[in-house]
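In keeping with the milestone schedule agreed at the kick-off meeting, the structural modelling team has produced records for the first pair of proteins. Each record is given below as a sequence line and a structure-token line. The laboratory manager (R.T.) confirmed that both were archived under the project's standard naming scheme.
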Amino acid sequence: MSEFNEPKLESLLGLGQEIARKLREKNENISVMESSAGGLISTSLLAVAGASYFFRGSTIVYTHEARRDLLEINDSVLEGVRPSSEPYIAILAHGLKEKLSTDWILAESGATGPTGNRYGDAPGHACFAILGPGVERTFTLETGEDNRFDNMIRFASFGLGQLTDALG
């Protein structure tokens, strides 16, 4: 796993460059679905010159309405699946992969703070899914912090680090 300690906003750019290099080497592309990272994952990838070569698209799915309208995932598909969980984010990742026909997906959903979410998760809780050729992984991160923006950076850094590892 990539090193994870006190990421700074600038460190996201280095992760984006590394991912871009690996995707170009593989001649593959990526799409991103974010919630609590608020676009920082996508920004990190789009900041790389030539991003149109490997970046297919992204969406910020922050509400149930956005999930239904943008990903076209009906409530019935998620019946009995707790939001902000690994099974939940895996379903959303598959929905985006189907919608955009992308080689790789990085999906994230969580609770940035300063309070937890309505599902009982503390601030600093986020779940991630990575889908790619022969790869399907889910992760949960608990930062133990309640600073909203710091958690957004941590979520983006963690997700990008996990993607870097998955790309090999």
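The second protein of the pair:
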Amino acid sequence: MATKVILDVDTGTDDAVALMLAALHPEIELVGACSVAGNVPLEFTTENTLRVFDHLGKSVPVYQGLSKPIAREDFPVPRGAPNPGTTNVHGDYLDIPASTSTIQDTHAVEFLIETYRAATEEIVLIPVGPLTNIAAALRVEPRLAEWVPRTIIMGGAHHTGNLTPRAEFNIWADPEAAHVVFHAGLRNVTLVPLDATHKALVSRDDCAALRALGTPAAEATATFVERRIKGYDEGQPMSRAGAAPVHDALCVAAVVQPEIITTQDLYVTVETHGEVTVGETIIDVAGRSKRQPNMAVAFDADERAFVRMLLDTFAG
């Protein structure tokens, strides 16, 4: 039986690959997608999400969420440092045709609450953008923490940030929301930070293999990842040129192949103050806080298994 999932996305290039993987993998049933402001403003993330499903010819309901952080008025004005490479990596609109479908009338926050309230089967929640929608839903209905059986979050960093020296974009964009989500009492939470996603890179050669498949999903993925590689090579140099992480898709891959990431149970919190430190995930790898772990944190990933899953799923 396929695993039901809901994706909460700020759709740029890596979210798009995650959406396609969830929509097309035979072991996943994508119940719906919620949009949130993040990589680009809400109007773009929503339109990009619609574009992805229309490009695939898939009918997946899209619910528009929140356009601003739950507590801050300064987003997207940088706090402490610029976001190098974001525009080059994502752009505004995805490089696929404009959508013809429309969003649902229900707001994303309401959809999350009512879907989990009524669920008779487990639905995995996969937030891969700022945690604004999830935090807002938890504030409206705290019992959501009991109803969600499993949550896989793309966000955070331990060794290297991508916004400030230690902050990752999704958490930095709405640190108060991340703090709410991390401490809401959600069960079975997995955090997939940059430490793991940077271990599962997709290369230009992988893009060539994807493009050779000739399917809409494979060709679009090649286009998106090639843009990411160019952006990373120019704005966020990595140890391996000609390759880039596809952060959000790794979270989807972990639903059907948990061993694709390697995790440790740890206590994690979020810094919500400080000009430079705001948005940092404090991952207590040494147990100094003496607090009980509140999530499993991924520090490693199987790159070739991840790429194989993309190739196999998008082969058509």
